[in-house]
Design goal:
The complex is a heterodimer of chains A (301) and B (287). Chain A has 301 residues and is an alpha+beta fold. Chain A has seven helices and 20 strands. In chain A, helix 4 crosses helix 6. Chain A is globular, with a radius of gyration of 19 Å. Chain B has a single domain, classed as 3-Layer(aba) Sandwich (Rossmann fold). Chain B is built from twelve helices and eight strands. In chain B, strands 2-1-5-8 form a four-stranded parallel β-sheet, sandwiched between helices. A two-stranded antiparallel sheet of chain B has the order 3-4. A two-stranded antiparallel ribbon of chain B has the order 6-7. In chain B, helix 4 packs across helix 5 and helix 8 crosses helix 9. Chain B is globular. The termini of chain B are far apart. The chains are: A alpha+beta (301), B alpha/beta (287).
């Protein structure tokens, strides 16, 4: 294999270069290759419109772009459907394929990203489009080290909840690029019909696993107020259940017991807060000040 | 063969009374009690929900070009139907077709209730909803490419809904479903609520008494809904709009749009207006 990378704690050997990823010298967990893929899988346990899953294989079919066949969690075969679509195809490695491999490796893949403060991770989760990337990119500009933008792989080590950083890119919309003065830093479009970009994290991207201190659920406050709410008890489990990378995969991969065990550990050991704030550009600085105060004053915003 | 005919599509152009009907159905199922607008559970949401699309595609729809997602929507509805225990009412603002794709397959459709409202009254309400001028609203109602939630600068929580003009929208559903289509006029709901809401309950084959239907109609009187919105808000209100519920009156267009704008709507939609009884054969507006 020509290239080896580390991505969310998973070491990947690849036939082709993936410029978004961080190089690694460790032994590969998974191999990426180009090749032919099947039309259908036998004995499927889960069938979505674009995804088929059986006991040992996962097949993702993206019309006109590429097909991805994951075999025994060890090999990913990619069939690009048009020569112009190689770069587009690679973007699915950073999302869906990473998500599958994360579940299979026993991680809890939180849908979100985070930053480091005083050696501990502060993570941000929410549904897509809720402002996770803008929050993290803005915190990085205010001196925090970025850890991940889309998927945070959490696991237990020495009774602590740890996370593996992901890959050094932010996914940002054009207005966020402008607000954060990140235009012309090497960004390129995530999709040709969207003003959304993959932006390189220019410095301070950590690749070392970090203990997790707190998870913030980002919530839009439509009345324009900014405030924190501490989450307790079973509500923590519900937030964790709803905000893993793909909740349906837990059942599809038959990992309910292991996954809920890990969620229970995270729920016991990690603080969770709802961060309610308006989605209002004019109040962005106020939002960052409030959040930074909560992080640096140990939860007292 | 498993019967997947589970969807009751509650179809309308925006600001035509769809939410009012959904709130009525909710009140009917809850002993005419309507404590908050935010607990509508008589429907399982809107057909354009990105959450639903993501769930049944298997990957996030935001990772695919919108044109792909539109072609996959019939398959999304089929997968959704496979996972439903029973009949499900779903709000729809899309036209029945998009670029030759029949978006709402007959194989998963139990009923279609199409709510139409005269475009003269709709114009100001639609302008308020979209936060643009009435002039722009009138042009949008005449625009064959009119759509909702189309945005390449933000990931909307709804997929793009291609509606076409007000007539295109009506004709698409009429052509797609012909005799299986139940058409309800907003004006009839306002003027004869007991008769028309009872008809909707009959279409759904729900078993409620005349008294229960009347009580539910009273619970969703316009002033009550407006009051509830003022007190407790409404999560379906667009962020930058002051109120979801505005006036809801029939014939108020005379105070809100110009004669030129009314004439433009008559010219553009003449045969649909005539067919629905909104104008006479001379083009005179009847509401």
């Amino acid at each position: 294999m020509n290239y080896t990378y580390i991505l969310g704690g998973i070491v990947i050997a690849s036939e082709f270069e993936i410029e978004e990823l961080t190089p690694s010298q460790e032994k590969a967990d998974v191999t990426l290759k180009m090749g032919k893929t099947p039309e259908n899988l036998d004995n499927t346990v889960t069938k979505k419109v674009l995804v088929q899953i059986n006991a040992n294989e996962v097949l993702l079919q993206i019309p006109d772009i590429a097909k991805f066949w994951i075999i025994n969690d060890k090999v990913v075969i990619i069939e690009v459907l048009h020569p112009d679509k190689i770069i587009d195809a690679q973007k699915y490695i950073l999302s869906f394929i990473l998500g599958v491999l994360s579940f299979k490796k026993g991680f809890y893949p939180l849908h979100g990203g985070g930053v480091v403060y005083n050696g501990e991770a502060y993570l941000f989760t929410a549904h897509s489009g809720a402002g996770k990337s803008t929050t993290i990119a803005g915190l990085q500009q205010r001196g925090f080290t970025a850890l991940a933008d889309d998927i945070c792989n959490l696991y237990v080590e020495d009774e602590k909840i740890m996370m593996h950083p992901c890959f050094p890119r932010f996914k940002l919309w054009e207005d966020s690029l402008e607000m954060l003065n990140l235009k012309n830093v090497g960004e390129y479009k995530l999709r040709s019909d969207l003003q959304k970009f993959l932006v390189p994290v220019l410095n301070d991207f950590s690749i070392t696993p970090v203990p997790v201190k707190r998870i913030y659920l980002l919530v839009e406050d439509r009345e324009g107020k900014t405030f924190m709410e501490e989450v307790k008890g079973k509500d923590k489990m519900e937030i964790l259940r709803a905000n893993n990378y793909k909740p349906w995969m837990v059942k599809a991969f038959n990992i309910l017991k292991e996954h809920f065990g890990l969620m229970g550990s995270i729920s016991n050991k990690v603080e969770i807060k709802k961060f309610n704030r308006p989605l209002n550009k004019a109040k962005l600085n106020e939002m960052y000040d409030f959040l930074i105060a909560d992080i640096t004053n140990n939860g007292k915003s | 063969m498993v019967n997947l005919k589970k969807f009751i599509w509650l179809v309308s152009y925006p600001k035509s009374g769809n939410t009012w009907v959904r709130l009525f159905l909710h009140a009917l199922q809850n002993n005419a009690s309507l404590e908050s607008l935010n607990k509508i559970d008589s429907t399982n949401g809107i057909a354009s929900s990105r959450f639903i699309a993501d769930e049944y595609l298997g990957i996030e729809s935001g990772e695919l070009p919108d044109s792909f997602v539109q072609t996959l929507r019939p398959q999304i509805f089929t997968k959704w139907a496979e996972n439903l225990a029973g009949d499900t009412i779903v709000k729809v603002h899309d036209a029945a077709f998009h670029h030759g794709t029949f978006t709402f397959p007959k194989e998963v459709t139990k009923n279609v209730i199409l709510i139409m409202r005269n475009p003269f009254d709709m114009a100001a309400s639609y302008a308020n909803h979209m936060q643009f001028s009435i002039e722009k609203a009138v042009l949008a109602l005449c625009n064959g490419n009119n759509s909702l939630a189309k945005n390449n600068k933000r990931l909307n929580n709804q997929l793009t809904q291609y509606m076409g003009s007000w007539s295109d929208f009506y004709n698409s559903w009429k052509n797609a479903y012909r005799n299986d289509l139940h058409i309800v006029r907003y004006e009839d709901l306002k003027n004869n609520p007991i008769e028309i809401f009872t008809k909707i309950v009959e279409i759904l084959k729900w078993n409620y008494s005349h008294e229960q239907i009347c009580a539910a109609i009273q619970a969703v009187e316009f002033d009550k809904l407006k009051n509830l919105e003022d007190k407790k808000g409404f999560k379906e209100k667009p962020t930058h709009t002051k109120n979801f519920f505005r006036k809801g009156e029939v014939g108020n267009w005379r105070n809100e749009i110009t004669n030129e704008q009314a004439n433009l709507l008559v010219n553009r939609h003449f045969y649909t207006l005539l067919e629905l009884g909104y104008i006479d054969e001379n083009g005179k507006i009847l509401f």
